[in-house]
Amino acid sequence: MPRESDFPDWLLWLLRHPLLTIFVSVAVVLGIPAILALYLDYRIASLEERRAALQAGDRDPSGAVPADLPRDIVAGQTVYVPLYSHVFEGEGRRLELAGTLSVRNTDAKHALTISAVRYYDTSGELVRDYLERPLRLNPLGSTEFLVPQSDTSGGSGANFIVEWVADEPVLVPIIEAVMVGRIGTGVTSFVRAGQVIDEFRTSGDVTTPPEDAPPAQGQ
Q: How far apart are CA 158 and CA 195, in angstroms?
């Protein structure tokens, strides 16, 4: 038979106070879900406050705010951006990736308006329209659109179509997709730049920013 000395003091104390032990156990079991519920309520409230602020026209920390299309459009582009929701590695094992579409206004003086961000799958079918209304991107502002790693609907040939316009001559934005995935304990990432497939301008004042650095390479 085991002796009392074989058990730790805290366990012996609990055994000598069964009612208190039951009370503490019930409090822990009920308290953890309550704490989780309060945390989720807080997160939902924060998201609702941010959504309400954006609808009211307040500045988004990303540098973009909801806006109407300019009345007098003098420049604009439609840009195709490849995005891979998965790739294959090794002997054909599928590696799922998280993708981020980044749109960066390179002009230090003038804003531009993102009029459309549409996500298409490998077969060319529309998966998602990311914009409910246009976004005004402030000078040197940036904004991002996420395709989570769990979203594999796009496939290896997924792509974004991004349309932007401006009511005055501007530098063209940098539009690119960043893919990130995990292989074992390591991480792989690579970047793909957008390709202009259509362009509108009333003058020759829309210029491409200088390329001071070589294109990003996969890691």
A: 14
Q: What percent of the chain has pLDDT over 70?
A: 68
Would you state the structure tokens that stand for residue 75, as one six-digit string? 């420049």
Angle 24-25-27 (CA atoms, 0-180°, nearest 5)? 65
Q: Tokens 């799958």 map to which residue?
A: 121
Task: Please give the C-alpha separations between residue 54 and each of 57, 130, 140, in angstroms, as whole numbers.
Answer: 5, 15, 19
Pairing of strands 75-82, 64-66: unpaired
pTM of the predicted model as reported, rounded to 2 decimal places: 0.63
Token pair listed for 67: 């806006």
CA diameter of the chain: 95
| Cβ atoms 159, 120 nearer than 8 A | yes
Residue ranges in the chain whose pLDDT is less than 50: 47, 51-61, 213-219
Contacts of 24 (CB under 8 A, 6+ apart): none
